[in-house]
Amino acid sequence: MLKSAHFTFQHSTAQMDVERAVADLRFGRPVVLKDQKRQLAVLALDCVTPAIYELFAQVAADQHRLFLSAPRAARLGVTSGAGIAVPLSGVGFEDASRLSYALDVEPPQEWCQPDQIMASAAELARNALLLPAMIYAEIEPDEPRFGACLRLDADALGQASEARQIFEIIARTQVPLKEIGDAEFVVFRGGLAQRDQIAIVVGKPDTNSPVPVRIHSSCITGDLFGSLKCDCGDQLCNGLAHLKEAGGGVLLYLDQEGRGTGIGSKMRAYGYQHLGIDTIDADAELGFEADHRRYEAAVAMLGLLSISRTVLFTNNPTKISALRAGGIHVEERKPVFGDITAENMNYLRTKMLRADHMLDIETLTGPC
Predict the structure, then answer these.
(1) Mutual orientation of helices 93-101 and 50-59 as an angle, nearest 10°?
(2) Which tens digits make up the pLDDT trace of 309-347?
(3) H or E element: which one contains 42?
(4) What is the pLDDT of residue 5?
(5) In angstroms, rounded to a whole number, what is the distance separating the alpha carbons of residues 338 and 326?
(6) 299 neighbors 328 (Cβ within 8 angstroms)
(7) Whether the Cβ atoms of residue 213 and residue 302 lie closer than 8 Å to each other
(8) Cα(134)–Cα(289) distance, rounded to whole angstroms?
(9) How far apart are alpha carbons 140 and 145 in whole angstroms?
(10) 317-325 vs 296-304: helix crossing angle, rounded to 10
């Protein structure tokens, strides 16, 4: 007979609850956020159908509101560091969607400051790679109409944040690369959402000395399909070439599409860029800050590879700061450039002027 046993999970209760909440939001289900004073039923507008939207309005007795982040509010002409909460009584799905991310929308006539608990809702959306446009309604404790919904303490995200740094190596193997030769692909699993990350080890880097390192965030359009809108594909190839020329190094390929906003939001932003809006303002139209990437995974991966001192190939000062904050020594910074074209010139100029990337567009005429 099988004896009773207790399973010990590595994940904390807070981490499991956050990951379940992220999954529910992506499925278009409400999540109940609670603190010591209040409870809110929250729904991600990015994932709901018109029918679900109308059902939520009905269950909430038309007392629901729309949370919009500070960047989106600013694009609507409203200044509020905490974002805004807009009443949705009588507002249909299409109008709520337009208010959340469309261009040339009239600012709301009525709004208020959102509750502090909405910061947790926005952070959940960020973890779910969804637009930070959240429908919510205040409910009573043990409200039966939302009884089947997951309930999440608002401070659970803070409690679960340390999981972003917990990874393990699950596979490593040799892969021959064009113009690079044999490289070792090392796969890491972990983080808050258990997404796999990859390190490409070129040559035989000496971990007793500063190791050449390149941190590269995934860009499907540039890395795989040669998009001319950015220089990401060039930076990926040139970064690997630099590591080979340096005698060996590590490229961390992080799953952070669209500067951490996800492929769906990235494509929406691309649409706005086609209309002449720069990359940062295009993300702001969708409610995002200039850069949503995180680098806890990079710090953890380097640690598992026994790398504590680096020569970092980057143009982005944020990456340098993130590694240093995580205890990784960046002893030298070297640039990585790509082709400058008519299609990506404005994109690169925006990164230089508005995101403080260490570029001098006027003196760069091609790959280094």
Answers:
(1) 100
(2) 999 999 999 999 999 999 999 999 999 988 888 888 888
(3) strand 39-44
(4) 44
(5) 28
(6) yes
(7) yes
(8) 16
(9) 10
(10) 60
The string over 268-277, giving b where at least 16 C-beta atoms fall within 10 Å of a residue's C-beta and e elsewhere, is bbbebbeeeb
Checking phi first, is residue 61 left (phi over 0); if not, alpha (psi -120 to 50) or beta? left
AA letter at 256: Q
For residue range 124-150, list pLDDT tens digits in order: 999 999 999 999 999 988 778 888 899
| Contact criterion met (CB below 8 Å) for 231 and 339 | yes
Is the pLDDT at 3 greater than 60? The verdict is no
Spatial neighbors of 210 by CB under 8 A, at least 6 apart, are 309, 310, 311, 329, 331, 332
Q: Which of 35, 95, 255, 291 is catalytic?
A: 291
DSSP states of 291-326: -----HHHHHHHHHTT--EEEEE-S-HHHHHHHHHT
Q: Is 293 a catalytic residue?
A: yes
Taking the C-alpha atoms of residue 50 and residue 72, their distance in angstroms, rounded to an integer, is: 22
pLDDT digits (tens, 9 = 90+) for 229-249: 999 999 999 999 999 999 999
Residue 155 Cα to chain centre, angstroms: 20
pLDDT digits (tens, 9 = 90+) for 149-197: 999 998 888 888 888 899 999 999 999 999 999 999 999 999 987 789 9
The single-letter code of the amino acid at 1 is: M
Residue where the block lists tokens 């640039």: 335
Residues 255 and 196 sit within 8 Å (Cβ to Cβ)? yes
Kindly write down the DSSP assignment for every residue of 139-198, as one continuous string: E-TT-GGGTTSEEEETTHHHHHGGGGG-EEEEEEEEEEETTTEEEEEEEEEETTTT--EE
> Which amino acid is residue 115, in one-letter code?
D
115 in active site: no
Catalytic residue from among 65, 164, 259, 293: 293
What are the residues whose beta carbons fall under 8 Å from the beta carbon of 37, sequence distance 6 or more? none
Amino acid residing at 105: V
Token pair belonging to 307: 């790398």
pTM value is: 0.90
